[in-house]
Amino acid sequence: MRSIGIGDWELVARLALAVVLCGLVGLEREARDQPAGLRTHILVGLGSALFTLVSAYAFLDFRRPLPGPGGTAATYYDPTRIAAQIVAGIGFLGAGAIIRQGISVRGLTTAAALWISAAVGMAAGAGYYLGAVATTLLGLVALVGLRGLRERFAAAVRRDFVLLEVVLASAASLHPLLALLAEQGIEVEGLRSRREDEVSAYVLELLVPPGVDFPRALEQIRSLAGVLEASASGLRARG
């Protein structure tokens, strides 16, 4: 079965374009530690592209001209109804692969891979061989080949989340502390305070960018005038 109205290289180019564009969105989300990241976006975009190609070109052989003068094309048998049911049904299968544990969500890439598999199966079943092979190869590239790129990119832009607890001689000592953090490029995301006897205690939620030596910054904080105690905890990656 040959595609009508689209060349082989154009077909591959459309699939590749879907990978590139959706991958750019996924790469940004991946760097932000969102549950649906690089591979998930690529797989969803790639599957959508193939579903569109299959719907547009794969079933033209089922169309026959109506008898009579000036007859237009009609479909005696509509296989797209079956395709529509596959698209709807794969959503339930993908939902079963998604696991939520507290604030953590796992299985989104698996759900997208199941969706891709449905698209490849539809294309292969319709005789859309090039689309099926190209999608399979590009999907494998997204799942396996891009893993290293994803990890390198995320490590380059990911920030550490730090809880900084300080005890100050007075509230006025907070201003030099905030100035030091700003000088280091450390973002203060939250600030809580409490009064303890004659001193002021603060808990600061910080976002530390890559390249910042936070242990060294912590020593600088401890050396500030008016800082009685300073400790950091809860270091973890955050987008």
From TrEMBL:
It is found in: Cell membrane. It is a multi-pass membrane protein. Pfam families: MgtC. One of its GO terms (cellular component) is plasma membrane. Keywords: Cell membrane, Membrane, Transmembrane, Transmembrane helix. The chain crosses the membrane at residues 12-28, 40-60, 80-98, 105-123, 129-149. InterPro entries: MgtC/SapB/SrpB/YhiD_fam, MgtC_SapB_SrpB_YhiD_N. Residues 15-150 form the MgtC/SapB/SrpB/YhiD N-terminal domain. Belongs to the MgtC/SapB family. This is Putative Mg2+ transporter-C (MgtC) family protein. It comes from Thermoleophilum album.
